Amino acid sequence: MMSTFQKGSGMLLAMLCLCGSAFSQQKHSKTSYYKSYKGLVMAGYQGWFNTPEDGAGRNWNHWVAKGRLEPGNIKVDLWPETKEYEKTYKTPFVRADGSPANVFSSYDASTTDLHFKWMKEYGVDGVFVQRFVGQVRGGANRHHNNRVMHHALDASKKYNRAIAVMYDLSGMRDSVDVPMLIDDWKNLVDSLHMTDGGNKQTYLYHNGKPLVALWGVGFAGRNYTLRSIERLMDFLQNDPVYGGCAVLLGVPAYWRDLAKDAASDPHLHDVLRRADIVHPWAVGRFKNEEEYANYLQQIKGDIAWCRENKVDYVPVVFPGFSWTNMYPRFPLNQIPRNNGAFFWKQISGAIGAGAEMLYVAMFDEVDEATAIFKISKDPPVGKSPFVQLAAGEPSDHYLQLTGYAAKMLRKEVPFREQIPAAKPGK
Fold first, then answer.
1. Which residues form a coiled coil (predicted)?
2. Cα-flanking dihedrals φ and ψ of residue 4, to 5°?
């Protein structure tokens, strides 16, 4: 029979355990200004561009693949409109009138600030800041990524834009990189205070929990297994200190059929049932509005599967695609923007099919010409070709369309299949 002292000690121990458990959950604030992804249009944010003079020690990162940056050797197919940037860097490229064509660096706080300012001005709800596995293992790459994340978090607060972390698992080593990614999330929570900014913080929540995205799940030919994905999910969802998160899984376009770009393992569906949001990658899976009409049937089937399995769903929309300077064997303007019609066809189709949230690929990726931020109407001339906007198309056209899409998604403006008329650029 237990003594009074033993009973008291037992009760005290239980209370201490409860207190410890409650304390351990304080890593994340209870809620956020952005309580759900539903009703939002978010974009992907790469933040990976550098110049030799920006202090990051990464040379012309993502402006060029290797060798010297010069006409005939560059990696991007879109040229950014840089008139509003506080700081730009000279390149060997020139415009038709002989004036220099400068670029920005993602390493600069002023660059990130301007991008989030545009999000606010045009009504883009926020971004998922990308963290590639190979870029957060250490060294200059990790330093750059941490700096961009820090600046993005500051700018999200300044302009009240939603922000979330997306881990791109491309290049992940099976099981080896799992502890590294876990430590990286711990570091973001502890050092940058990503999720403990109080109930009006800007970190994106979903289902009452901070949302973390894992992109690259279930693709054919990857070196990591679903078991490694499950280990990451278990940590993010269940760790008593750093867990309690909602999880978005970025999957192949044909994940439901386990075909084409998807691995054939049916266990993928079991893993997806544990997620909060399924996010199929559709960039490059269709090349025009007609092909998209066929792909739209895939979206409708995806939505039906997710509803049946009580998982949320977010489709991808993208404005166009080109990577001829990266891979010269491919034609310039491989998937034409068609003055915004290609982009709007996807937006109206997805919303019309019942999508409750959208993911735009991407905010700033000029490498593959998917960027929606301001694009130069006067790109450089010479050996390297660049995608040109249509005559009369403003440099901020895709920011305008994305902002209108957000209003249409929330039913703040009437649904329309036809693309809204472009306004004169700001």
1. none
2. -60, -40
- Residue 128 inside a domain? The answer is yes
> pLDDT for 9-38, tens place per residue?
445 444 444 444 444 566 999 999 999 999
Q: Which sign, positive or negative, has the C-alpha torsion 376, 162, 321, 109? A: positive
User: For the domain that residue 183 is a member of, what is the CATH number?
Assistant: 3.20.20.80
Q: Return the closest-CA partner of residue 210 out of 177, 279, 170, 162.
A: 162
Cβ-count burial 232-261 (b if 16+ within 10 Å, e if not): bbebbbebeebbbbbbbbbbbbbbbebeeb
Structure tokens at 57: 């020690």
Residue 208 counted as domain residue: yes
Residue numbers of the domain that contains 83:
29-409
- Write down how long the chain is: 426
Residues of the chain with pLDDT > 90, as a percent, come to 93
Instruction: Compute CA distances 416 → 349, 352, 405, whole Å.
Output: 10, 9, 10
**Residue 420: inside a domain, yes or no?**
no
Number of independent structural domains in the chain = 1
- Distance set, CA 426 to CA 72, 84, 103, 113, 394 (Å): 32, 11, 19, 17, 8
